[in-house]
């Protein structure tokens, strides 16, 4: 899962059938990467959220057949914006990733 900030709503009047009527949000990571996420929780613009990717993103949607690979799973009540820079360093080096060995 990743922590991202909702920076806007995305309205698309024409969609592929597999996307259905899912709400869409534009999100930006702490590193500045902009993406589009489905939003089953109704996250408002400006809020930090946590999102999941890949097949877990589909499973996080009410309609499990929704064609998505990024879904907002929850709205964060409190977030220190300085934390992402520290956690990015750990991810890059593999330190503190939480992965078990063995």
From TrEMBL:
Q: Which organism is it from?
A: Tepidimonas alkaliphilus
Q: Which Pfam families does this chain map to?
A: EutN_CcmL (PF03319)
Q: What is the protein name stated in its UniProt record?
A: Ethanolamine utilization protein EutN
Q: Which cellular compartments is it found in?
A: Bacterial microcompartment
The reply on keyword Iron-sulfur is: no
Q: Which InterPro entries match?
A: CsoS4B, EutN_CcmL, EutN_CcmL_sf
Write out the entry's keywords from A to Z.
Bacterial microcompartment
Broad class of where this protein is predominantly found: other
């Amino acid at each position: 899962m990743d922590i991202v900030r909702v920076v806007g709503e995305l309205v698309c009047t024409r969609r592929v059938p597999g996307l259905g009527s899912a709400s869409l949000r534009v999100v930006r990571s702490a590193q500045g990467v902009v993406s589009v996420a489905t939003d089953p929780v109704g996250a408002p613009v400006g809020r930090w959220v946590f999102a999941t990717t890949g097949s877990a993103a589909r499973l996080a949607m009410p309609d499990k057949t929704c064609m998505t690979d990024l879904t907002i799973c929850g709205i964060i009540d409190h977030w220190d914006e300085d934390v992402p820079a520290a956690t990015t360093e750990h991810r890059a080096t593999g330190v503190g990733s939480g992965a078990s060995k063995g």
